[in-house]
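Consider the tokenized backbone below.
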């Protein structure tokens, strides 16, 4: 889903680390440029290691960058272009250093060509940095999933994609069962650990291109592209059953079992994303009303059934 999230399913910790690494990469590049310019101005002998054909793979910055040790950066759709520019820039720098070593002059065109390559590399690296910082601002700091604010823009984009491609998409409202009891019994720090564990379980067990958003409190919205409600039901049922087997440590030797209730609806382009979320929420409520730790698909008959039950309850 490169068009909307260049770093899919990252925790806030991973995202913050990427931001720091890219900032360090930009600093290291500036230092490298300064040293290279000093060589050209002062005509000092280049380091022999810098003259090797694989020089771009040596050094702290080069090792981190050219060996592609960060799997999250590898997944970014523009990272291959950055690697390409990095190698071209270093090869041009090596050619300049070979001229310096041989006591030859560097022409203005050769120097300008190198500067252009360097500028292109820096612009692309800054674009990666901007993407990472943007994602960090849209990440819930407690759970590491995307925020409600980021969700609405993404849902609208998915509606448009679904309209163009004809491929269905589904959204799911997920609510942690008996969460208030955890807070009341063990405290809010324990509740935070439960939310973190639930969010991380979703990230680990949904499909790689599915999206998770914290909607508020103990509620999460899941976006499942290319899935009808029935297909989404099979995916979420697998997640629900697996979650039942998990145990979460919440401190002081206490362990709790997490379960959740789910509501599913299709995300279609002719209704608003807020309306779709409301439908998913109604289906989730029916899962709660039916005993929790269940899932339901929203349909109009479900709403009619709930209204009839409410009327009967009111008349008693």
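A designed sequence for it:
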């Amino acid at each position: 889903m490169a068009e909307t999230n260049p770093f899919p399913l990252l925790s806030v910790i991973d995202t913050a680390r990427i931001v720091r690494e890219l900032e360090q990469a930009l600093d290291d590049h500036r230092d490298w440029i300064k040293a290279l310019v000093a060589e050209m101005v002062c005509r000092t002998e280049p380091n022999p290691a810098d003259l090797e054909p694989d020089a771009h793979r040596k050094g702290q910055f080069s090792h981190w960058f050219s060996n592609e040790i960060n799997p999250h950066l590898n997944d970014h759709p523009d990272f291959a272009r950055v690697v390409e520019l990095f190698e071209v820039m270093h090869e041009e720098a090596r050619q300049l250093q070979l001229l310096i070593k041989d006591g030859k002059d560097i022409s203005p065109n050769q120097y300008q060509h190198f500067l252009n390559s360097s500028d292109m590399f820096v612009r692309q690296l800054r674009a990666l940095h901007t993407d990472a910082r943007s994602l960090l601002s849209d990440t819930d700091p407690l759970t590491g999933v995307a925020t409600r604010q980021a969700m609405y823009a993404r849902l609208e984009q998915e509606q448009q994609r679904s309209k163009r491609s004809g491929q269905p998409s589904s959204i799911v409202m997920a609510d942690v069962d008996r969460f208030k009891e955890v807070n009341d019994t063990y405290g809010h720090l324990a509740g935070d650990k439960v939310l973190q564990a639930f969010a991380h379980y979703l990230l680990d067990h949904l499909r790689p291109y599915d999206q998770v958003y914290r909607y508020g409190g103990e509620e999460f919205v899941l976006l499942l592209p290319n899935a009808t409600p029935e297909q989404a039901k099979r995916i979420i049922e697998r997640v629900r059953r697996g979650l039942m087997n998990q145990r979460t440590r919440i401190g002081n030797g206490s362990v709790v079992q997490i379960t959740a209730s789910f509501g599913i609806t299709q995300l279609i382009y002719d209704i608003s994303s807020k309306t779709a979320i409301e439908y998913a929420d109604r289906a989730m409520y029916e899962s709660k009303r039916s005993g929790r730790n269940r899932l339901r698909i929203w349909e109009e008959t479900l709403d009619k059934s709930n209204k009839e039950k409410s009327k009967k309850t009111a008349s008693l």
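Residues 310-316 have pLDDT under 50 and may be disordered.
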